[in-house]
Amino acid sequence: MKLLHYPVLDSTNNKAKELVLQGESDNFVIIADEQTGGRGQQGKTWESPRGGLYLTLVVKWEKNFKINLTAVPLTFGELISNWCKETFGFCPQVKWPNDLYFSGRKLSGILCEKFQSHILVGIGLNLNQKPLANSISVSIVNGQSIEVDAAQKSLFKYLDEHSHSLFKGSFDPKWFLYQKAWLSDSSSVYVAEKIHEDGALELSSLDSKSLKLFSADHSFSVFTQAEKQRFYVMLDVGNSRIKASLFSTKSDDIQEYSVGKHTEISKKIIDWHSRYGFQLVVSVSVNEESVHLLQQELPNSFCWLKLSKFLPYLKTNYQVSHIGLDRLAAMEAAGFLVGRHKPMVVVSAGTAMTVDLVSHGFQHIGGYICAGLSLKLSSLSDCSLLPAVELPEQLSNTPPTKTADALAYGAVHESVAFIQNMLVSLGEDVELVLTGGDGLVLKPYFPKAIYEEKLIAMGGNFMFRGGYLR
């Protein structure tokens, strides 16, 4: 594919049309270092100063192309998102119908046009721009200046390798439904149900009314990008306890927090609702039965969503569908706490204990699930004549002389030894991040470890909001 590079153009799309009219028939890419008349959807201006990445991909339409033209911006949004994660280490969200957002702010816009027998895909990406209201750049996310020339060449190569196959493939809308919660201008919460083959977005309301959006409609917005402050609750539903966190769309911090059983949390949610007037409840849970029980105890006026498995930074060799939401959320939050450049072990010590290993480059290399401390002790009691034992609040360093203490100490030291082995396997300068009810029991054995009770809620919020900034 041919590459044409210009220092300044009014618009890469305009130049593409000019070349097509002059007889250019092959597929090609136009790149400009600066645009003086950049355009977005519906004729809006796209600010295009030096320091950004501006290009137009021109592809001659072929009979065997399957994709609907209106779905092209979404499909290329996914492609650019994948390129960003491979190149810069973070994954922006595709925002219907034609943008890329990260941490609730706009990073890129895509303008798709059909001109004669060609498809024009115009892409504008903020690389080094200073932030405007509700916008962001790659340099802000990564905390360092981006070499524009290298980024231009890298994206051109990526488009050359992958773009043609996108037109021949079928449109897969599942990828684009990370942003499930939408808000109308009347403050009603809607849920994104599906994206149709023609690119239309289908929304449904609490009373099961559905509607389709075929183009950007400013009476609807993604919930986390609403102009006014909105509140929502994030639930981490465990086997023995429920952790409820109240968040605001204008802050990454937890506004209020509560831990308890179903009835206690139901009362707390109702109390928060009376004071903050929210509708949306987001679940970071693998325990669907417990979530359903909680739904039955609360009024029907709440909109319930299960968190989508969107990973702003974490890379994993697993199929994401095979990893619990709680584990993914814990790792994303751990990266925020200790820095994504460090290897780490992330332990969630509850009824079950999960131990996940993350290497340099924030790459999840695998994990383990084993019985938690309390489950170990109860299992020993159920399967033998040994007495039922509860974990003591404090453990001494001397070997135990009583059966009950021997059971408790054995369970703890077995888990400690396992975690120590995982730390050694990752090499030197490994961080340990603990959470869960039994995390405090393990913490004295690892003085340098970070314990964060709200780790899963923090990570769930980062995933829900589409990223985070340090």
Account of the 3D structure:
The chain has 470 residues and is α+β, with helices and mostly antiparallel strands. The chain has 4 domains: 173 residues, Bira Bifunctional Protein, Domain 2 (BirA Bifunctional Protein, domain 2), CATH 3.30.930.10; 49 residues, Roll (SH3 type barrels); 76 residues, ATPase, nucleotide binding domain (Nucleotidyltransferase, domain 5), CATH 3.30.420.40; 151 residues, ATPase, nucleotide binding domain (Nucleotidyltransferase, domain 5), CATH 3.30.420. The chain contains 11 helices and 23 strands. It starts with a strand and ends in a 5-residue tail after the last helix. 41% of the residues are buried. The model has no long low-confidence stretch (mean pLDDT 88).
